[in-house]
Amino acid sequence: MTTPRVRKAAVAGSFYPGDDKTLRGDIDRFLNNVQSTPSRGRPVVIMAPHAGYVYSGQVAAHAYRLLQGTAVRTVVVISPSHMEHFPFASVFDGDTYETPLGSIEVDQELSDSVAGGGLRVRRSAKGHIQTGLPHQEHALEVQLPFLQAVLGDFRIVPIVMGDQDWSVCQDLGEALGPHLTRPDVAVVASSDLSHFYSYEVARRKDAIFCELLEGMDPRRLYDSVAEGECEACGAGPVIASLIAARSLGAVRCAVLSVANSGDITGELDRVVGYAAAVVTAQEGASTPGPPAEQTALDEGVQTWLLRHARGAIESALDMPVEQPPAGEWPILQEPRGVFVTLKSGSRLRGCIGNLEADRPLRQVVDEMARAAAFHDPRFPRVTQSEIQDLRIEISVLTPLRQITDVGDIRVGHHGLVIDDGVNRGLLLPQVAGEYGWDATTFLEHTCQKGALPRDAWKDDRTRIYVFSAQVFSE
After folding, report:
1. pTM of the full predicted structure?
2. Which of 2, 114, 189, 407 has its CB 3.0 to 4.6 Å from that of 241, i.e. a possible disulfide?
3. Rounded CA separation 118/120 (Å)
4. Are 97 and 7 in contact (CB under 8 A)?
């Protein structure tokens, strides 16, 4: 069966007016009610709600107003899937989306590049065109008339997330990141906030979400939603967009407007929350890679982190701790990926890490030191009697970079991550040097570490990433 090439308007006349003149008039009114705000950088991501326009249209206008007059000509629109579950992010494999304001062409080249043949991000009609279901997905479609009003001639990359698990968010964010260097590309993350709480409870939950959103910490936001502290049906699109923006070096997110359905209807018992936000990058930003990729740690920072890591372990053991004076180095607040390795003599005693540059360096070192000491499932918990003989090693990582040619691997300099979409193996750069491996042996052992066949790295579906690390120890 051939996949339909056109996605017809499905919720015109219900979520927004089905008549083009009425629709354009409503959007113009919403936009005119927003006072122009000077931009503090190039808008690379906007977040907008996807409820019926009568409820959330005015909130959405605060975000779309910032795209007027920009150089944007291709928009990646990411929405959740309300109608069906599938284990990946679906990049529409058709030609156009339609609304009462006309047809919007799909940017095929960019869509192919974002999908990239990955298992968690792929070309598909899934989530875009539902067959055999009573309703069609609305969360992506309702964003399009606003884009048509503010941009005129543009193309889209429509993406529906059938699964909002962290791994899907991460893969989608990493796939999008390199393309945000282009000034003609922007992302729309489609999401409402809390659902069906009282007015006051909704305001509290939505305030938590907005605070975390402005903090631009994707993992912390993901965890908060997972734990129920806050709520967003499109948390996945928002988190993937933040991951992409951070890879560009974007560091500023501003919440522009927050409201809920009770503000419109006056019914305060069961409301739905809405927010509009923008992530901006400095004008001219064109080189992907956060500061973590560019700044090395000097000897003073290394010494402080090693003392801090030891203090974290000793504190957890209720030992007297002589913590180092608070470090004043700005680099300690930079998000970094970190591994902490514990050794007793030449024997490994624990090793735990976090690949993602999603929390400040000093915080991650603290967390990984405790995890290596007490939560590595391969070893018993570290005891007080072992502390004196324990040696701490810290590896501060650069972001992952996917490669297609294993000849790019520099043994002794690169660490490896090998991922088949289900299992993932990782080995740090120093491991290959310690054992004297060549690149092929390094690849095989990384596969084995992830419970993959030794030759899984040869499979076209397997993704290989390299990273480097600054390694220092006591």
Report:
1. 0.63
2. 189
3. 6
4. yes
Which residues lie closer than 8 Å to 73 by C-beta, 6 or more apart? 151, 153, 154, 155, 184, 185
Distance CA 247, CA 288 (A): 6
Token pair for 458:
């040869």
DSSP 84-106: ---SSEEEE-SSEEEETTEEEEE
Say which residue the tokens 């048509």 belong to: 148
Q: Report the amino acid identity of residue 34.
A: V
d(CA 115, CA 121): 5
- Compute the distance between CA of residue 473 and CA of residue 458 in angstroms, rounded to an integer: 35
Q: Which residues lie closer than 8 Å to 324 by C-beta, 6 or more apart?
A: 304, 307, 308, 311
Other C-beta atoms within 10 Å of 468: how many?
A: 18
What string of pLDDT tens digits covers the 474 residues of the chain? Answer: 455 589 999 999 999 999 999 999 999 999 999 976 555 688 999 999 999 999 999 999 999 999 998 999 999 999 999 999 999 999 999 999 999 999 999 999 999 999 975 679 999 999 999 887 878 899 999 999 999 999 999 999 999 999 999 999 989 998 998 899 889 999 999 999 999 999 999 999 999 999 999 988 898 899 999 999 999 999 999 999 999 998 777 768 999 999 999 999 999 999 999 999 999 986 544 443 333 344 568 888 899 999 999 999 999 998 887 666 665 678 888 888 899 999 998 789 999 988 877 788 989 999 999 999 999 988 999 999 999 899 999 999 887 888 888 888 888 788 999 988 888 899 988 888 778 898 999 999 999 999 999 999 999 889 998 888 888 898
Neighbours of 230 (CB within 10 A): 22
The DSSP result for 167-195, as a single string, is HHHHHHHHHHGGGGGSTTEEEEEE----E
Beta carbons of 473 and 392 less than 8 angstroms apart:
yes
Strand, helix or coil at 199?
helix
35 phi, psi to nearest 5 deg: -70, 140
- Contact, 137 vs 161, CB < 8 A? no
